[in-house]
UniProtKB/TrEMBL annotation:
PANTHER family: AMILORIDE-SENSITIVE SODIUM CHANNEL-RELATED (PTHR11690), PICKPOCKET 17, ISOFORM A (PTHR11690:SF248). Keywords: Ion channel, Ion transport, Membrane, Sodium, Sodium channel, Sodium transport, Transmembrane, Transmembrane helix, Transport. It is a multi-pass membrane protein. This is Uncharacterized protein. It comes from Pomacea canaliculata. It is found in: Membrane. It comes from the Eukaryota. One of its GO terms (cellular component) is plasma membrane. Belongs to the amiloride-sensitive sodium channel (TC 1.A.6) family. Its main location: membrane. The chain crosses the membrane at residues 95-116. GO terms for molecular function: ligand-gated sodium channel activity.
Amino acid sequence: MKVRRVACSVRDRTGNSGCGGTRILDGDCVKYSSIGKYGLYSDLKKMDVGQEKYSHHHYTHHPRSAISLITELGSESNAHGLAKIVTSSDTKRKVIWALMVIIGFTAATLQLSLLVRKYLQFQVVELSEIKDSMPVEFPSVTVCNIEPISWRKLRLLFENGEDTELMQWLNFTMRFKFGNQHPHLTSIRAFYENLGDEAKNISHELKDLLIHCQFNQEACSVENFTTSFDGNYFNCFTFNGGTPEKRLLMHATGPQNGLSLIVSLDNDEPPLGTYGVYNKDSNILHSAGMRLVVHAPNTMPSPVDHGFDIPPGYSSSIGLKAVLNTRLSQPYGNCTTDALIGMKYKNTFFSCLQVMIQSLEIMSQAVY
């Protein structure tokens, strides 16, 4: 006959029970069956799980305070400074760690703001590379006479008495009086402003200026130049200003391998009273010399903005260093097309800007 024994015990404060050290709940009785004492584990496990569920259910009905939540967050945070503030027992250490955390966050915020500001500036990144390679393409060289009018041609025009627009303008200003505007209409500035297409005819010709030409130790002539018109210097002449298929290359450095020019100013017979007169309204009238500008091949020259003066009676030597800018492809680049609108030149930012300004000026005059 099988006998079932029942054991009862009460848990003390230390968690030890009177049932041979077996951990049981207060006031619960454990039955020992014929299976043995090891069957007790599963029964105890079920009671512990039930107790945890009860404790969790009881806890959710009592929300914790904000201080306790912050304390728990700081103690379990991966930011070591916050954890040190919470876990430190000394007030001084808490203050020191708090200051260090504030300084660290301030520095990180400042650095992040600088990075964002730098990104919003959209700066251009350039990678420079210096190469000593030959041959290199020779640039275009444009020369203009600082005195735009050939006084010899102007004298012939007056002597022949041809009925030109210039003569009509001069007769018009001499025949009538215009009150307060009369000094301006009879000034040298008005004379230049009303030349029109005749400016090309009374300006200099390259055959009258060029005495000697040599490039890369070979002779050159007028045929190697192209003529362009500038509003300030009238006729200008460009060396290496032809088509891209006829590129001129330099195979060695030095003055003997570059371009050498000897020019005459063609102003040996100025009208009486005009030579040496200074005009404060213009920086080019009644002066002597050549205006020279070096620019990229097949681009429009701008002597006024990018040129420099060469005085007469001196030998001037100019050294150059080629700089090639290779920009990224689409959608990057300089946002310009290859050809300048309505012209044979390549498009550049400055030339495009000049053409647009001129177009706006013409439109404003037409509206006025």
